[in-house]
């Protein structure tokens, strides 16, 4: 509804000194032209909103203007409480502050929505850690976090996945936690990259201010880097699977694969084709070994040979 969108636009402008039309368009999921139409509507309604041209321009509210309207609906109240209450790992030391904020949020929502908000907190819990896994230790997360929040350049010693070490001068964009693993999104020589925080061996925040583009959006940068990494690193495997074992293969590879498998209908021999991508060859080998006779690897041939060698080693170990 347009009224809700106008309210969202007004609240965004209240929390920021300025915002560009493209930024607002991305956040509100509308076109830039619609942003300007909504700004005109707010101005016509008496809201002191104006635009400035130029490099540091954007859309602003007149300094000092505030509105006490929050406009939280019942669904919004439930969503905020359910997905913030106990949902974020306490690695950043924000657990106490978050708990306090949730209590304040419940107290602040309209009385008609308060029971729903409290019920959501009691009935929804988000656990970020995968099954049978514990988060890797990140002793330097605090130092990295301080540099991110202070917008300071960071000099790090970094260990790559192949064991190679290197030193980098980084411009931090932000921190992301995925499945219990923390990543630093930062630019090196102007190019955004992903860095696992548990692989950072040293971190020194410099007095220099980080170079961070005004229009950078952490979620957008993260999504692009994640998708690029998955597409580059993925090992695509073609399997032959008995028709009655397809569901087992799909279920047993869940959480270890990239995306959903492609299943080709069974042929005359009663075996279906299954194409599945894994984040690495090692994970593919371990997973498919565990499935035993339920699957036959067709491609890549190198992976098929590796699994065959591992099976021979197992026979040798247990056969005598």
UniProtKB/TrEMBL annotation:
Domain WCX: start-end pairs: 234-314
Ranges of residues in domain WYL: 140-203
Pfam families: HTH_11, WCX, WYL
PROSITE patterns in the record: WYL
Span of the signal peptide: none
Segments forming a coiled coil: none
Residue ranges of domain Helix-turn-helix type in the record: 5-58
SUPFAM superfamilies per record: Winged helix' DNA-binding domain (SSF46785)
InterPro entries the record matches: CBASS_pafABC_assoc_protein (IPR051534), HTH_11 (IPR013196), PafC-like (IPR028349), WCX_dom (IPR057727), WH-like_DNA-bd_sf (IPR036388), WH_DNA-bd_sf (IPR036390), WYL_dom (IPR026881)
Designated name of the protein: YafY family transcriptional regulator
Native species: Pseudonocardia humida
Lineage of the organism: Bacteria, Bacillati, Actinomycetota, Actinomycetes, Pseudonocardiales
């Amino acid at each position: 509804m347009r009224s809700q969108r106008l309210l969202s636009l007004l609240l965004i402008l209240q929390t920021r000194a300025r915002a560009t039309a493209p930024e607002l368009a991305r956040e509100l999921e509308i076109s830039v032209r619609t942003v300007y139409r909504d700004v005109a509507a707010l101005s016509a309604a008496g809201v002191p909103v104006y635009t400035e041209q130029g490099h540091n321009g954007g859309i602003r509210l007149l300094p000092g203007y505030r509105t006490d309207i929050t406009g939280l609906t019942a669904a919004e109240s439930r969503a905020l409480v359910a997905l913030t209450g106990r949902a974020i790992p306490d690695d950043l030391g924000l657990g106490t502050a978050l708990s306090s904020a949730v209590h304040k949020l419940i107290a602040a929502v309209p009385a008609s929505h308060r029971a729903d908000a409290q019920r959501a907190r009691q009935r929804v819990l988000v656990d970020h850690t995968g099954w049978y896994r514990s988060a890797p230790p990140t002793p330097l997360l605090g130092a990295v976090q301080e540099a991110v929040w202070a917008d300071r350049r960071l000099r790090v010693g970094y260990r790559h996945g192949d064991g190679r070490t290197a030193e980098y001068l980084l411009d931090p964009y932000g921190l992301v936690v995925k499945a219990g693993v923390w990543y630093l999104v930062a630019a090196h020589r102007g190019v955004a990259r992903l860095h696992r925080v548990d692989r950072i061996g040293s971190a020194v925040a410099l007095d220099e201010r980080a170079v961070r583009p005004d229009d950078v959006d952490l979620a957008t940068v993260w999504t692009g880097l994640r998708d690029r990494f998955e597409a580059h690193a993925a090992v695509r495997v073609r399997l032959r699977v008995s028709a009655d074992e397809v569901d087992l293969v799909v279920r047993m590879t869940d959480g270890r694969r990239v995306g959903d498998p492609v299943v080709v209908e069974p042929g005359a021999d009663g075996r279906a084709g299954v194409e599945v991508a894994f984040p690495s060859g090692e994970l593919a080998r371990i997973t498919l070994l565990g499935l035993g006779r339920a699957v036959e690897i067709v491609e890549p041939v190198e992976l098929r040979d590796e699994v065959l060698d591992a099976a021979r080693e197992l026979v040798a170990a247990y056969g005598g």
